Amino acid sequence: MRFNYDLLPGELLTFEEIGRRYGLKYPAEKALTLRGLLSPSTSPRQLVIRAVFAHQAENSPLEDLLFVSDDNERKNYLRRFEHYMQHGQRFLYLRRNDAAKALWKVMGESRVYAMLDPHGAAAQNLLASRGYRLTLMRQQGEDDFWQLFDAAAMPCFKEARTLQFIVVLETPLLPAPAAVIAGQQVGRRVRARLLQRASQAEFSAAVRARYGGCVITGTTLQDNIAAPWVEACHIDARENEEGLLADNSVDNGLFLRSDLQRLFLSGLLFIDGEQGTVHFRQLLSVDDELHAFYQEIDGKACALWQQVPVATRERLKKTGRPA
Hints:
This protein has helices at 15-25, 56-59, 77-87, 121-129, 188-211, 258-266, 287-293, 310-318; strands at residues 12-13, 38-39, 51-55, 65-68, 91-96, 104-116, 133-140, 143-149, 161-162, 165-170, 230-234, 253-257, 269-271, 278-280.
């Protein structure tokens, strides 16, 4: 191997030089890209990691730790890192520190040593052994926002950030991590939440592609505004033993205007699986006002009922809502 092909641990290089050397060494592979944590982007069905680019601003001064956020079906960080840990595979690891903003430090061919739940004792003990403290600042929906403090109680992140799991790396420049068990994986809670989120994204895309608008009113999704006026929802939301939705198929989904979706999920609105008509259930006296507001669609057939397949109609019948 020629010397100028190599990316030697400890070198400080521009991204352009890193990309040039990588291209010389692997001419048949896709070029590296800085978009996202893993590079280059690959199909969600693949588990390939060619390089990891980590910014100190997002990953703290601790060079052997990756603080992972925003996992989803496309990025698939959890499954990729788990695969590399289980098979002992290595990937190129690079960091960009504040002291050298234009340069990347080559950490070398590295491997996943462990994967930790930020809520767990293993993560907390590991950070405490190095003089750091990871604190849960707030929870917003399904997202946990964390801040990492150093030994001087100074925050390491610019602001509290979402954090799903921590990857502990073993690199040529750093010794094997202490205070954590090699091969440790995130627990069921983290896996269930990430897999559910990835599954939900795939489900939403499939339901949107099927209907393109609200099943009840025909209202189309507004792509040019931030508000999600039409959203996907499940007809049968029962969970399996793993805490995931038992039926996440597109046939178990409807595309509904946001306000109607909330009424449907709360049981105040139901759709007759035979006729496709919309009905409101009045449970309290104050519901009279609600009913008056929606009286124009009460008892009327869904605008997109012809697009609702038999399998979905059968699920509407089984929900137990009265016709």
